Amino acid sequence: MAAQTSRPTETTTVADALDRCPFEPETIDGHRDDDGCPEYLLPSTPALVQMLEAPPRVVLSEPERAALPPALVLPPSDADRDGVIDDEDRCPVTAEDKDGFEDEDGCPEADNDEDLVADATDQCPDVAETPNAFKDDDGCPDEDPDADGDGLGFEADRCPLEPGDKTDGCPREPKPALALPGFALPLVVAAAPTVEAPQPAAAPAGDLDEDGQSDDVDSCPMSKEDGDGFEDEDGCPEPDNDSDGIPDSKDKCPYEAEVINGVKDDDGCPDKGEVIVHVTENAVVIDKVVQFKPASATLAPSASSLLKQLAATLKAARALSVEIQGHTDDVGRATANITLSQKRAEAIKTFLTKAGVDGSRLVAKGYGPTRPRASNKTAKGREQNRRVEFLILGEAK
After folding, report:
1. Alpha helices, DSSP H only, in 233-333?
2. Would you say residue 288 lies in a domain?
3. Domain of 272: which CATH number?
4. 322 and 363 Cβ atoms separated by less than 8 Å
5. Is 229 part of a structural domain of the chain?
6. pLDDT at 9
7. Residue 354 within a domain
8. Would you call 362 helix, strand, or coil by DSSP?
9. Which Pfam families does the record associate with it (predicted)?
10. Of 4, 34, 107, 266, which has the highest C-beta tally within 10 A?
């Protein structure tokens, strides 16, 4: 009888939930007793057992990526090389002047204090000049001086360069202009008649100027009548019969007044053309605007014709004394605007003087933005406030 193979003891000790062979009892033999399977059902060869076992899990790692090179950082550009980079430079192609005044904006400031005196000649480049006709070209502020020594400072003195009385600082009190169209004659109140004591008989009158008019009826006993047929009975010479400002010696029409309109105003004859300069009761008015180059006291080319007509009018109205007033809007510093208006008024006075108007009849005064004609809140109003006016002060001496 063939020998039978002995089996190991069969004892189930593994719960079905964990038993790989729930219908076959585990063989408790010290070999894999926790899988619930009898070992006689498994391959007995260790090599075959190893092949049947699950292979180890291999986790592949991602390949390392090569690091990118750092981004190239370019230095900020500075086209004008003034130390202020172009992104922050308000004047990227014009170098900052590095004078300690607003150097961070990158723009040169030719006039730091905006007093119209360039820093190159300004003795106080960071403090504005006081425009008061006293050392106005040094660029430094001054006290309110009395340049003409009449006891009135600049603010109160309407004639700061001419000594005058205490009312306005001018050498005369304004009087109504006479003998011009549009001027009312002064009211003359007749004095009560007086009884004069009898005078001794006068000696026969002579004729000192030998013009044929006895001195007792000669209005100009020391000046000889010119005998030109014009008012010869008064005994006075009339160098300009028609009172058009052109002496008879040069007047082609000595008995007809020139019409001042920019058309041959120096020949003394009336002609056709638009009259733009008018004498009113209080002022000499120009219908057009006297232009200057922007932000300067230099007259624009268009101003020449207007001022020539103004000069001709003033030469004809020899009895008038005029204040040339410069006015501005309120844009910018008030001190700078007052300085600009003063220089513009002086530029017009210089033009008129060179054109033959007696300079003693003219006063130049800049008021800046202190006397607006319209609101400065609109462009139209500011344009109206930038102007020049010619105020009649009265009769010239």
Report:
1. 303-316
2. yes
3. 3.30.1330.60
4. yes
5. no
6. 47
7. yes
8. strand
9. OmpA, TSP_3
10. 107
In a domain, 145, yes or no: no
**Within 13 A of 203's CA, how many CA atoms are on the CB side?**
2
- Report the predicted TM-score, pTM, of the whole model to 2 decimal places: 0.43
The label of the residue with tokens 């009259």 reads 275
Other residues' Cβ atoms within 10 Å of the Cβ of residue 351: 18
Please tell me the distance from the alpha carbon of residue 324 to that of residue 365, in angstroms, as a whole number. Answer: 6
Residue 334 CA to residue 116 CA, distance in Å, equals 12
Q: What is the pLDDT of residue 185?
A: 42
Most confident region among 111-115, 208-212, 300-304 by mean pLDDT: 300-304
State the residue range of the domain holding 364. Answer: 259-395
Of 49 and 348, the one with more pLDDT: 348
Q: Where does the pLDDT of residue 190 fall: very low under 50, low under 70, confident under 90, or very high at 90 and above?
A: very low
| Cα within 13 Å of Cα(348), Cβ side | 30
The total number of structural domains that make up the chain: 1
Alpha-carbon span 22 to 36, nearest angstrom? 7
Q: How far apart are CA 304 and CA 245, in angstroms?
A: 19
In degrees rounded to 5, what are phi and psi of residue 341? -65, -35
Give the residue carrying structure tokens 């004078």.
99
Q: How much is the average pLDDT of 83-97?
A: 85
- For residues 152-157, give the mean pLDDT: 70
Amino acid (one-letter) located at 341 = S
Angle at 271 between CA 310 and CA 260, to 5 degrees: 10
Calculate mean pLDDT across residues 243-247: 68
Rg of the chain over CA atoms, in angstroms?
Answer: 54
